[in-house]
UniProtKB/TrEMBL annotation:
Sorted UniProt keywords: Hydrolase, Metal-binding, Nuclease, Nucleus
Signal peptide residues on this chain, from the entry's feature table: none
One Pfam family this sequence matches: DDE_Tnp_4
GO cellular component labels: nucleus
UniProt cofactor(s): a divalent metal cation
GO MF annotation list: hydrolase activity; metal ion binding; nuclease activity
Annotated family: Belongs to the HARBI1 family.
Organism: Tetragonisca angustula
Phylogenetic classification of the source organism: Eukaryota, Metazoa, Ecdysozoa, Arthropoda, Hexapoda
InterPro entries attached to this UniProt entry: HARBI1-like (IPR045249), HARBI1_dom (IPR027806)
Stretches that traverse the bilayer: none
Protein name, entry field: DDE Tnp4 domain-containing protein
Length: 446
């Protein structure tokens, strides 16, 4: 195959001529290139001018044949696309969607639930919300795009097991590079569609119902939720320095308000691990709303069978500051010396158990939270939010059908990727001490 290339000296003459200070601006010549065995061989050029100066220049070009071949190869050759591996080209015949899922999981409801954490009805419901937004139309380049249901199942499998993208690429026969794009796009749509349904902004009526549940189930009246936080470990983000570091590990903080059914009422995600634990709540959206008065607390009311009027409060542990809206236990040394304070602590610890249950069930259902998450911080925030929404969906289904499910988990912080906040609550105020003493006196009167 002969290829004729007409070149201007100023564009394609080798740099050797410039080093030899040859004046070639007015030179035009013709390269005749022969393609043989995937390499280019330069034949003797046909000079367009017969002057001795131009002959010398062309002879110089012939002496530098190796350099010219490399330049011509760069100019004339195109980078060939890497051949697609057969594991991906045969994916439509062997992947999870066409073989394992259709032939086995669809006929076994329990195995399907264990594999994706959602049953078929729940998957169809989620797919009806996000299916059109993650659907790709066929084109000349991609005749058979990946279906929305396969994208959703792939993302659910990633959240359920925490598998690496390379491992999922073998199972689903999809390139691991494209899997990262699929997971990110699906998580964005889950965030948009599921948060308004399963994590809506609570109203006063919602808090009144939660307070009634705490009074009847946990024997702690005027309580609208348990506040707790966890450090979710992540791999060190690029160029982050010590921003996400909490001395021994890198983390993102999950701060949540939880009801008696171990459901998340409010979540605040994204605080850096290096921030002080006592100030995380103060900097959160929930803390800012409480200080500004935008948080929808129910009105004050008297405790049952008494004339003691106290505001509705949130239960927390030693990691948070005591104030008129946040109750924390008495220090252990004081509780050891005063029986009334020990009784108050016992009531508070029994009510706080729902938060430990919620985080334990969350980690058990979604193994992605059981090891350091190796994605971008923005994607990590989407992962945590999506798992909290799906957790609430599963809790609603559990409460409605009363399916046997372990409901009393105690988190093991030594083996868990979600670590508790440090027990340093910062300064307290006088109103907090006064309200806590009222609860203490009421619990000791019963």
């Amino acid at each position: 195959m002969l290829v004729a290339v007409r070149c201007l000296a100023t564009d394609h003459v080798p740099s050797l001529l410039c080093r030899k200070k040859l004046c070639v601006r007015e030179l035009h010549f013709l390269y005749i290139v022969t393609y043989q065995t995937k390499s280019f061989r330069i034949e003797k050029p046909k000079p367009m001018f017969r002057s001795g100066m131009y002959r010398n220049i062309l002879l110089t070009l012939l002496k530098e044949e190796d350099e010219d071949e490399e330049i011509l190869f760069t100019i004339l050759s195109k980078r060939k696309r890497r051949k697609t591996e057969h594991i991906y080209t045969d994916g439509d015949k062997e992947d999870h969607g066409n073989s394992f899922i259709k032939n086995h999981l669809l006929y076994d409801e329990e195995t399907y639930r264990q594999f994706f954490r959602l049953n078929k009805k729940q998957v169809d419901f989620v797919l009806s919300l996000i299916g059109n937004n993650i659907k790709k139309t066929s084109s000349r380049r991609v005749k058979y795009p990946i279906s929305p249901v396969e994208k959703l199942l792939l993302t659910l499998r990633f959240l359920t097991t925490g598998e690496k993208f390379r491992s999922l690429s073998v199972a689903f026969k999809i390139s691991y590079g494209y899997i990262s794009i699929i997971v990110r796009d699906v998580l964005k749509e889950l965030y948009k569609k599921l948060v308004p349904i399963f994590l809506p902004e609570p109203q006063i009526s919602d808090f009144e119902k939660i307070a009634y549940d705490f009074k009847t189930k946990c024997n702690f009246p005027n309580c609208i939720g348990v506040m707790d936080g966890k450090h979710v470990r992540v791999l060190s983000p690029k160029n982050s320095g010590s921003l996400y570091s909490d001395r021994h590990y890198f983390s993102i903080v999950l701060l949540a308000l939880i009801d008696t059914n171990s459901k998340f009422v409010i979540v605040d995600i994204g605080s850096y691990g290096e921030e002080g634990e006592s100030g995380i709540f103060e900097k959160s959206i929930m803390g800012c709303h409480m200080r500004s008065g935008q948080f929808r607390f129910p009105v004050e009311k008297s405790l049952p069978a008494s004339d003691i009027v106290v505001p509705h409060v949130i239960i927390a542990d030693e990691a948070f500051r005591l104030n008129d809206r946040v109750m924390k236990p008495y220090p252990k040394d004081q509780a050891a010396q005063d029986t009334t304070k020990a009784i108050f602590n016992d009531r508070l610890y029994r009510a706080r158990r729902v938060s430990e249950n919620a985080f334990a069930i969350l980690c058990q259902n979604f193994q992605i939270l059981s090891s350091p998450i190796a994605v971008l911080p923005e994607t990590t925030n989407l992962i945590i939010t999506a798992t909290c929404c799906i957790h609430n969906m599963l809790r609603d289904e559990y409460l409605s059908t009363d399916v046997s499910q372990p409901d009393n988990h105690e988190t093991n912080t030594s083996n868990n990727n979600m670590l508790p906040l440090a027990r340093s609550g910062g300064f307290s105020n006088a109103d907090g001490f006064r309200i806590r003493d009222k609860f203490r006196c009421y619990f000791n009167r019963l």
